[in-house]
Write a structure and sequence with these properties.
By secondary structure, this protein is of the alpha+beta class. The protein has helices spanning about 15-25, 25-30, 50-75, 90-100, 115-130, 135-140, 150-160, 200-215, 220-225, 245-265, 265-285, 310, 320-330, 355-360, 405-435, 445-455; strands spanning about 5, 10-15, 230-235, 235-240, 290, 300, 340-350, 365, 370-375, 390-400, 460-465. The chain has 3 domains: about 5-265 and about 360-385, Orthogonal Bundle (Hypothetical protein af1432), CATH 1.10.3210; about 265-335, no CATH class; about 340-350 and about 385-470, no CATH class. The chain is about 45% helix and about 15% strand. Helix 4 crosses helix 7 and helix 11 (about 265-285) packs antiparallel against helix 13. Pfam families: HD. One of its GO terms (cellular component) is nucleus.
């Protein structure tokens, strides 16, 4: 039967019985042990929330958005009878499951070569098989076998997210998704929207993180859902917002920028997370620290990504011996790595490098023509743009316990900072010319600097990027 959750962000929310079945599995329950903000809990006392509650919230919001889109569709059936099956009950349930399971692969470890979306798909398969959920899904009307509109494939495709497809009007156009056909392309924009970053995942973690951090959230996701609708854009259906809601969407990116500056990239938070990473590396090298996998076998932390049962146990807890335990003890005693210095590598004006997610990748509709989507012209949004869209930083931390030489290290860093910054900016400008204005930290020269720093036993480094489209 359906279950009601009393959520501090969304109030009383009711979830489908199948979603409750998924929640009541070991693979999903492990998310209770993973803090949403990682090392942020050591800086912000209220940031104790975890991936479990965030995932429940995303599952709820995914259902709210897809149901709102279907309600608007039903209002238009008299004008467009062909839209009768645009969103059906199977679609609604699949979208909710994708929202609920989008973070299943999250872990504190940095060993996995998988992106967290790929790890989530890996864990979703394990959850379904280990708990024999296919018969339950079939009873709920889902299709779990075959190649034609397989709902399990559809759910995993939504978790993975979908990059922008070319227009159906182009000669090179081809629809590459297997879970649903091109007529339902907009469903891929609900959970993980790789086109413009506007999705229910962000709706929940902005609201939830701001609530627990004590930071003002200026973005109203409820208003976005009210004004969202499916519109035709060059022969393809997209989720569009009312043109007057443009300011609300910019508030979303303002909020994201504020969270990155004040919380996600906080220097102490990052020091804690670097220390946890170092503890994981030490634990991986410790022959006494092994994780049980299937059939009674054990494996190291770095090998756990290949074993579903072992991956289920990766929560960032359990450092009980050796050097790993010593590093964790330093965190407990607030004996943290110290910041030596920071270099701002690049700063781009928001929207001036074709990177503005609103004017370039988001569609709107007008009151007088609510079925056709269009882009807002850049000159119409200039007054709403923040001063900076993307930043790159490099931080250097001091790892030794005593700080006798810390001041000397800071002086040395300041001495080479100008030379290093000049060198990095030269790399940035060269890379801009090669990549049409898009900056990537995968530049060979910058990687050489990273490697040099990492080889020094008393130093560690950290890089960050903040922008409106992607988090790294």
């Amino acid at each position: 039967m359906a279950k009601v959750f009393n959520d501090p962000i969304h109030g009383h929310i009711e979830l489908h019985p199948l979603l409750v079945k998924i929640i009541d599995t070991p693979q999903f329950q492990r998310l209770r042990k993973i803090k949403q903000l990682g090392g942020g809990y050591y800086v912000f006392p209220g940031a104790s929330h975890n991936r479990f509650e965030h995932s429940v919230g995303v599952g709820h919001l995914a259902g709210e958005l897809v149901k709102a889109l279907r309600a608007k569709q039903l209002e238009e059936l008299e004008q467009e009878p062909s839209m009768d099956s645009l969103i059906n009950d199977r679609d609604v349930l699949c979208v909710q499951i994708a929202g609920l399971c989008h973070d299943l692969g999250k872990s504190y470890t940095r060993f996995s070569v998988l992106h967290h979306e790929d790890a989530s798909i890996f864990m979703f398969d394990h959850l379904v098989d280990d708990n024999n959920l296919k018969p339950v899904m079939n009873k709920c009307g889902l299709i779990t076998e075959g190649d034609n509109e397989n709902d399990l494939v559809f759910i995993k495709e939504m978790i993975k997210g979908s990059l922008k497809n070319s227009s159906p009007q182009n000669e090179d156009y081809s629809w590459k998704k297997l879970g649903r056909n091109n007529e339902k392309s907009f469903l891929y924009e609900i959970v993980a929207n790789k086109q413009n970053g506007i999705d229910v995942d962000k709706f929940d973690y902005f609201a939830r993180d701001c609530h627990h951090l004590g930071i003002q959230n200026n973005f109203d996701h409820r208003r976005f859902i009210v004004f969202a609708r499916v519109c035709n854009v060059d022969g393809q259906l997209h989720i569009c917002s009312r043109d007057k809601e443009m300011a609300n969407l910019y508030d979303m990116f303002h909020t994201r920028n504020s969270l990155h500056r004040r919380a996600y990239q906080h220097r102490v938070k990052m020091a804690v997370e670097i220390m946890i990473k170092d503890a994981l590396l030490k634990a991986d090298q410790d022959p006494h620290f092994q994780i049980k996998s299937s059939e009674g076998k054990t494996c190291s932390l770095s090998a756990a990504k290949k074993h579903k049962e072992a991956y289920t146990k990766l929560t960032g807890r359990g450092f009980v011996c050796g050097e790993a335990a010593q590093i964790i003890q330093r965190i407990m005693c607030r004996d943290l790595y110290q910041l030596v210095g920071e270099i701002k590598v690049a700063k781009f004006d928001y929207g001036k490098k074709n990177e503005d997610p609103i004017s370039n990748y988001t569609y709107f509709y007008s009151k007088f023509n609510p079925t056709i989507g269009f882009k807002i012209k850049p000159e119409e949004v200039s007054s709403l743009l923040p001063e900076c869209f993307s930043e790159k930083h490099i931080r250097v931390y001091w790892k030794r316990r005593n700080d006798k030489h810390l001041e000397d290290a800071k002086k040395c860093f300041e001495a080479v900072k100008k030379v290093l910054l000049f060198y990095l900016m030269a790399v940035v400008l060269l890379h801009q010319q090669q990549c049409g204005g898009k900056l990537s930290m995968q530049s060979t020269c910058i990687l050489r600097i990273k490697v040099t720093l990492s080889r020094m036993p008393v130093f560690t480094y950290w890089t960050k990027r903040t922008d409106g489209l992607k988090e790294e």
